[in-house]
TrEMBL record:
TM spans (from-to): 91-115, 135-156
Keyword Cell cycle: no
Organism of this sequence: Streptomyces spectabilis
Protein's name in the database: ATP-binding protein
Region named Disordered: 1-46, 173-196
Entry's Gene Ontology molecular function annotations: ATP binding
UniProt KW Iron keyword: no
Comp. bias intervals (Pro residues): 32-42
Length: 709
């Protein structure tokens, strides 16, 4: 950023530019605001609400579980007895115990049950005339026998289960409010800052938190700044002075924003998670996940995410925009850099949520897009541009590449950069690729004046190859002509008259939205999408400081999946970066690249409405699992005698079913986790099946998720 607040090719942010108001009915209006507190609860002040958020437990959980206030469930589902069977069995057990005691007490079973009393007590106790002694000996022994009978029949009748299920919940009183934790354990007292020697900063932050001057994003931003101090990148004195002076507003984002104008999804800045939905209580989901919130964060997006579903299935509103919004919040907290790419008006958030909005083809766009991604090396610029122009034309196998196209472009970009100190504009490069004599002669004359023999050889080689059968230069020129249109005349300028955005800015917590001219320029939009993807993967891997999480959110990846793109995506995990991509169908990806693409991303989402052939690809990548299959055969028992019929009636009353003889066969079988037919027909509208893998290698099996809750 320059001294006057403008944006340069390697800068981070520019002065906020007025943006038009977001259209009504967008993503921000799709979800009603959450109530401030539970119904009937006393209202909380802003400080109390923030402290409650800060102190809410966030236990460690499996990948994808919404950790905010999460309660861990057991791995296996406990066996639940039907209510009718449980109550009937308990009542019959009580009647049996009562009958046994009546028979014993009335002597129908003999006096054997008195023998222990006679063996272990003296005769004087049993024949005493004292009422107290008789009460203690005889009535006490009788009480023990009654208790023994009731314990036995209670265990058989599962009285403890009745107590836990029906009685205990009604007797449970409201637990007292949790007391404030000890200062050394209270996150609101900032114990890590105190232990690190920043006690004055901790006191100021604690006071701002109690006064309601701090928000969740402030806490996340200051925690990020403190980690930078602990790693040695910033000084302790500067951090302490800033916090003591500015309080919760310390260590600001370069834009000065402390929050987004509005939030459409639920976020937890303490764990960097955004909630996408709820895992359905379905037998196909592991019991530990059922009913839990489903959330993603940089630890999962760092393995990249691919969402596939037809138009209207909720890819943009339920997946892309919540993730983009979460990354914008992370950028304001100094933790991430995000680039969001989609068609104009696709519902990717208002312009005020971003630092830079590049509207390609729009005459009022303040920012331009750097066609060469800020590269200064001709070979690097040629490789990225070749991938954008003809990456989709190479052989669609993982070993294919664009080396021929890269060589052709480098033979022109190198000499031009040597003579002019910059790369050519789109019309200039098109003329060179078409072999127009005048610019080529001017370029050759400039190289001769400089005495640059190496670049002269490059230019001569291009001249010899031009016009030969099979020369890729003509194809490059034809593709480049899609960008050399009147609508783009003011864009991709290399003379310095515009304000280009370069993806070299990923070293800084920048928020960028790039609007593609999808309407009327579909082919050009695909070229630009491939260009941004190639520039992002190249810049993210070349960063010196990888502490910031870098993410590219590509709303529609149609035409962008190439062999080189798949290879680059695989390398992003080690660079603390990731890509979020959506497709309407896997048919938009060449058949040889579908399996490599699904293998390159760690998070895969199949939304409702998937076709069976798309479901087959997901079923193959998710594999199979061993399950225990039970084959049950029931044969009804026919009673012949009146006693047998009476017994059958009793069994029907207890179990609610006719008496049967059951034969159970248990065997281990291998079954697909989700079959192609289930993915195509068993996923309800507004739902998706999602598998997750985090950057440490932990994974979650395919989960059925309700994206509307």
């Amino acid at each position: 950023m320059t001294s006057d607040g403008t944006y340069d090719a390697r800068g981070t942010h520019a002065t906020p530019v007025p943006r038009p108001a977001p259209p009504r009915g967008g993503a921000a209006d799709a979800v009603p605001p959450r109530p401030a507190q539970a119904p009937g609860a006393p209202p909380q002040t802003q400080g109390e609400e923030f402290l409650a958020w800060l102190r809410t437990p966030r236990p460690q959980a499996a990948p994808g579980v919404w950790r905010y206030g999460h309660r861990t469930r057991p791995e296996q589902e406990p066996e639940v007895i039907p209510t009718r069977q449980l109550l009937t069995g308990a009542a019959i057990a009580f009647l049996v115990g009562w009958l046994v005691w009546s028979l014993l007490n009335n002597g129908y079973l003999g006096g054997w049950w008195i023998v222990p009393l006679e063996l272990f007590t003296p005769d004087s106790w049993r024949t005493s005339d004292s009422k107290v002694v008789n009460l203690l000996v005889w009535d006490g022994y009788t009480l023990l026998v009654v208790l023994a009978i009731m314990i036995g029949v209670g265990k058989v009748g599962r009285w403890d289960e009745i107590w836990r299920r029906f009685v205990a919940p009604r007797l449970r009183v409201k637990p007292p409010e949790d007391p404030e934790p000890a200062p050394e354990e209270d996150p609101a007292q900032w114990p890590k800052l105190r232990d690190g020697g920043a006690g004055a900063a901790a006191d100021r932050l604690a006071a701002d938190a109690r006064a309601g001057l701090m928000r969740d994003i402030d806490a996340a931003r200051i925690a990020r700044a403190w980690r930078s101090v602990r790693s040695g990148n910033n000084s302790l004195a500067a951090f302490t002075d800033s916090v003591v002076r500015d309080g919760a507003a310390a260590c600001p984002h370069p834009s000065g924003d402390r929050d987004l104008p509005a939030r459409a999804a639920r976020h937890d800045l303490a764990t960097a998670q955004v909630r996408l939905g709820t895992t359905v209580d379905d037998p196909r989901n592991p019991y530990a996940y059922r009913g839990a919130g489903l959330a993603v964060g940089p630890n999962l997006i760092g393995t990249s995410l691919l969402a596939v579903g037809p138009a209207g299935s909720g890819k943009t509103g339920s997946v892309v925009w919540p993730i983009a919004e979460a990354l914008c919040l992370q950028a304001l907290a100094g933790r991430a850099a995000v680039v969001v790419v989609g068609a104009a008006g696709a519902g990717l958030g208002p312009g005020d949520d971003y630092d830079v909005v590049v509207r390609i083809g729009h005459p009022e766009s303040v920012y331009d897009l750097d066609l060469y991604g800020g590269a200064t090396d001709p070979d690097e610029a040629a490789a990225v541009l070749a991938e954008a122009l003809v990456g989709d034309l190479v052989d669609p196998h993982l070993g294919a590449d664009t080396r021929r196209s890269t060589t052709v472009l480098a033979q022109l970009l190198g000499p031009y950069h040597t003579v002019h100190g910059r790369f050519p504009s789109v019309p200039g490069l098109r003329a060179l690729l078409d072999g127009v004599a005048e610019p080529l002669d001017a370029l050759r004359k400039g190289l001769q004046e400089l005495g640059h023999e190496v670049m002269l050889r490059e230019l001569d080689a291009r001249a010899r190859q031009s016009g030969h059968p099979g020369d890729i230069g003509a194809t490059l020129a034809d593709r480049l002509a899609l960008l050399d249109r009147p609508a783009f005349a003011a864009f991709f300028d290399t003379s310095g008259r515009s304000t280009p955005f370069s993806l070299r800015a990923l070293d800084h917590p920048v928020r960028v939205r790039i609007d593609l001219p999808e309407r009327g320029h579909a082919d050009a939009s695909r070229i630009l999408a491939r260009l941004v993807l190639a520039q992002f993967t190249s810049s993210a891997a070349a960063r010196e400081d990888r502490s910031l999480f870098a993410c590219l959110v590509l709303d529609d990846a149609t035409g962008t999946v190439t062999p080189e793109a798949v290879r680059r995506i695989q390398r992003l995990r080690s660079a603390n970066a990731g890509v979020v991509m959506t497709l309407r169908t896997l048919d938009d990806v060449p058949r040889p690249l579908r399996t490599p693409l699904l293998g390159a991303v760690g998070c895969r989402m199949a939304l409702s409405g998937l076709t069976p052939w798309d479901g087959q690809d997901f079923a193959e990548v998710w594999g199979k699992e061993w399950i225990e299959a039970r084959d049950v055969t029931d044969r009804q028992i026919i009673a012949e005698t009146p006693a047998g019929k009476a017994l059958h009636v009793l069994r029907r009353v207890i179990t609610g079913r006719a008496p049967t003889a059951r034969a159970v066969t248990v065997r281990q079988v291998e079954r697909e986790r989700w079959s192609a037919s289930e993915l195509a027909h068993a996923v309800p509208p507004g739902h998706a099946v999602l598998s997750l893998t985090d950057v440490r290698g932990e994974h979650a099996p395919p989960l059925l998720v309700d994206l509307r809750s």
